[in-house]
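Bug #77: duplicate submission created two jobs. Keeping one. Sequence:
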Amino acid sequence: MLRPLISILDEHPGRPLGSQIHEILKRDERWQVEFAPAEPAVGAASRGVRGDLIVLVLSAPAEPARQLLDRLQSGHPGIPLLPVLRAQDLAQLEDVPFRTGDFLVPPLRETEVLARVRRLLLDSRASGCRASAESTHDTVGLGHLVGEDPAFVVVKRKLPLIARHEAPVLLTGETGTGKGLCAEVLHNLGRRAGKPFLPVNCGAISLELFERELFGHEAGAFTGAGAGRPGLVAEAEGGILFLDEIEALSVSAQVKLLRLLEDRTYHVVGSPKRRQADVRIFAASNGNLAEKVREGTFRKDLFYRLAVLTLTLPPLRERRGDIPLFVAHFLARHAAQGAKRRRLSARAVEALGHHAWPGNVRELENVLEQALALTEAETIEAEDLPIPRMPFHPSDAPGSSFRQRKAQVIAQFEKAYLEELLQIHRGNVTSAAGAARTGRRTLGRLIKKHQLSKR
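Kept job's structure:
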């Protein structure tokens, strides 16, 4: 299935602003991002600019900017346009016929950039402008969840049941297990389907700015606030606000979020008026929130407010039977994007099945993309995969007994698994033990057995 293509058209390629937008957009795997051909003053209306959305970074004075916008809109009538404008040009460009709100003004907020892009792609699909926009979030349903392993089938059965309710949802699981994708499926199965779905990475928002990012601010609310801005809650009105990495919130930010969950009201920064919010909250965490409650870094009352409905996604190492399905899925998607068809040898698939996958499904996809990019052969072999080689192969130690071989394989797997686990959890043995679903003492004994450093 083709992903939407976003073209960034910058008058001066290589500037920080265009690069910043590129960095923000390429983090989302649901679309492709590329820089459009340069020299927009000459070729902005040419056929060289393609995509499902054009992000235009403007730095010219108002009149040349107006001419450039006019040429793009007349040359690409079926493609939505998202201009990035200088603040001093807003008044002079207010009569340019692009929809109010569908522009950006530096300094850029990641959440605002993503919200604008998702809305434009969604509107484009709704009006039938481009068929390739079908992979945006409004089409993500149960059929997009790859996996038939019993551990994952349990998750898929719960999704329609959770979606029919309006209570908050807490999704837990390691990085790369698909919490964001499951959140979108929940959104599209529920009554708020078609309304905004706004994912927010709590770890990417400055703790000092959280309140005004979440609730917005009035003009003059603080130094430099020349104009008011709606917050994330207003952006998500009627739909879903998905708070990823919820554990990254400071205790003061947790208090403000708790108030929103308790009475569905909030204050815009700089306004005494209390506003009503019609949003459903989804939250996701990579860690063990119950453990953070015991440690005192996460509020108990907020935890119970969020965990009304919970869903825990299993790591890939606990659903290894799904690895061949993921391989087939990613290879088919790669071929659908115009690349030649490729396959993995039986030994390559076997090697994938032996890897510990600390980065889960996302790591598997990255491994396959790297192998596809760096291998020209039609068949990708185990040696082409950027993962550690399988601990032992029958030809490696022909003289050893079955019992010796088994002990060697287990020991080497334990060591590799522990090294990756400690790296993911930055040496935190308690957190690592929780992820491994074993006791802290058991994990400590294994670390000592293999003489590993917690750092």
